[in-house]
Amino acid sequence: MAAALIAPAAAAGCVASWLAAGSTVEVEPVLDGEPATVSVVYSPPLVVLSLVLATVAGVAAVLAISQLARRRRR
């Protein structure tokens, strides 16, 4: 039963950390007279946290589904 609660919580945390990981920065032009461009820079710790939470959510979802299937067989 705990896996069914952990999976959506970890998935929500994954999405939240991924959305918080990116920030935009202005990049200087390569040549004089060219306009500056905007790029997205990601925070490595938040990206790693997002990947770990995605893994936890996936494993918890598989465990919850297998527990549900096992209960229905009985």
TrEMBL record:
<feature type="transmembrane region" description="Helical">
    <location>
        <begin position="46"/>
        <end position="65"/>
    </location>
</feature>
<keyword id="KW-0732">Signal</keyword>
<protein>
    <submittedName>
        <fullName>Putative membrane protein</fullName>
    </submittedName>
</protein>
<keyword id="KW-0812">Transmembrane</keyword>
<keyword id="KW-1133">Transmembrane helix</keyword>
<keyword id="KW-0472">Membrane</keyword>
<dbReference type="Pfam" id="PF03707">
    <property type="entry name" value="MHYT"/>
</dbReference>
<feature type="signal peptide">
    <location>
        <begin position="1"/>
        <end position="20"/>
    </location>
</feature>
<dbReference type="InterPro" id="IPR005330">
    <property type="entry name" value="MHYT_dom"/>
</dbReference>
<feature type="domain" description="MHYT">
    <location>
        <begin position="38"/>
        <end position="74"/>
    </location>
</feature>
